[in-house]
Amino acid sequence: MYTLHFLSALAIKGRGNSQKPVHLREIAEEYDIPFKFLEQIAILMKSVGLVKGTRGKTGGYQLADPPESIDLARIIRATEGEILPCADIEGGNRAVNEILREIFQEQREWIDKKLATFTLAEIAEKARQHMEPAPMFYL
Amino acid sequence: MYTLHFLSALAIKGRGNSQKPVHLREIAEEYDIPFKFLEQIAILMKSVGLVKGTRGKTGGYQLADPPESIDLARIIRATEGEILPCADIEGGNRAVNEILREIFQEQREWIDKKLATFTLAEIAEKARQHMEPAPMFYL
DNA sequence: ATAGTCCCTATCAGTTTGATATGTTACATT
DNA sequence: AATGTAACATATCAAACTGATAGGGACTAT
Q1: Dihedral of CA B91/A82/B36/B51: which sign?
Q2: Euclidean distance between CA atoms B14 and B8, whole angstroms
Q3: pLDDT of residue A48
Q4: Which residues contact A14 (CB under 8 A, 6 or more apart)?
Q5: What DSSP string runs through B38-51?
Q6: pLDDT value at position B82?
Q7: A44 class by beta-carbon count within 10 Å (0-12 exposed, 13-18 middle, 19+ buried)
Q8: Is the pLDDT score of A68 beyond 90?
Q9: Which of A4, A13, A77, A90 to mutate: most B Cβ within 10 Å?
């Protein structure tokens, strides 16, 4: 799943008031992802409304919304659909089917809430701290 | 994923002090699962130690442990491996990789704990209530 | 006009998953 | 001991998904 890396890259690079779109080639190089592959991911992310693209020479991609408002649950839902396998089955025992559906639905909602507590902004923030190590002479 | 249905069937049928193995043919019929397919699932479940089989005329399958001790987390781990996709990527940005690994690890542990609160015994209990509707003249 | 970017579609190889088929091994009953 | 019945094992297949590659079209700042 390169999706998260792509979105993280946009969140990290698109900080502050810059607002300038980021080139895919730039990300592809820094993240060592095949360019043409990354393009697919970008298009997919655009189709689900998580990013927006600008064409032309000064074009590129940027997040469609502020990174604080994009959480893990939303991303994962957009890319993988549901998180737990749906335990629903054609045929199967009716009663068991219903019970499992109930249980899994409840679990999914729980997981969703938990995943929603993490946003792209936090990921970007942590990654920045990681990349720019604190000065040695902090004092 | 028929696995859960299979295990639920064993939990429902193997109640009380019976201890008798359940025939796969019986489950296949009641749950409308292709018999030979169900056999594969049973063998797989045996290989991960969740059920045990008895051969011969009076043979069949039964849970390897009491249903109260078999929880959803254990089952899902045995059948699907990890729940969330591992966000780790060959290449990719080092910092982002590490951050994502941390976050996903934490989330996985959380989900695991949540899933571990549900056992086969509870599923079986609920399914039984569902199958044997309460008498109309309860009063 | 042109270079550089996003955008679209098709294709391919590997993996997984639902599903089928053919057999071999062990046990209980007769 | 022979037989039937069940678990056990292995191979194979088709559809779906995923990582990956390729060829071209559309748009925009310069």
Answers
A1: positive
A2: 10
A3: 92
A4: A20, A22, A62, A63, A67
A5: HHHHHHHHHHTTSE
A6: 72
A7: middle
A8: yes
A9: A4
* Cβ neighbours of B47 (radius 10 Å): 10
Q: Rounded CA gap, B14 and B28, in Å?
A: 16
**Structure letter (DSSP) for residue A86:** P
Tell if the CB–CB gap between A85 and B1 is shorter than 8 Å: yes
pLDDT tens for each residue of B73-125: 999 888 877 777 666 666 678 888 888 888 888 888 888 898 899 999 999 99
User: In sequence order, what are the beta bridge partners of A61?
Assistant: A22, A53
SS3 A19: coil
Nearest to B14 by CA among B137, B113, B123: B123
Q: Is B134 on the interface with A (CB under 8 A)?
A: no
| Local structure of residue B24 (DSSP, 8 states) | H
Q: Is A15 helix (H, G, I), strand (E, B) or coil?
A: coil
C-alpha span between A46 and A65 (Å, rounded):
12
Neighbours of B99 (CB within 10 A): 24
pLDDT cut 70: percent of chain A above it: 87
Whole-number mean pLDDT of chain A?
Answer: 87
Q: Report which of B78, B125, B120, B107 is spatially closest to residue A110, judged by C-alpha positions.
A: B107
Task: Please state the pTM of the whole predicted model.
Answer: 0.85
Q: Does A33 touch chain B (CB under 8 A)?
A: yes
User: In terms of C-beta density within 10 A (0-12 exposed, 13-18 middle, 19 or more buried), how is residue B51 classed?
Assistant: buried
Rounded Cα–Cα distance for residues A95 and B6 (Å): 13
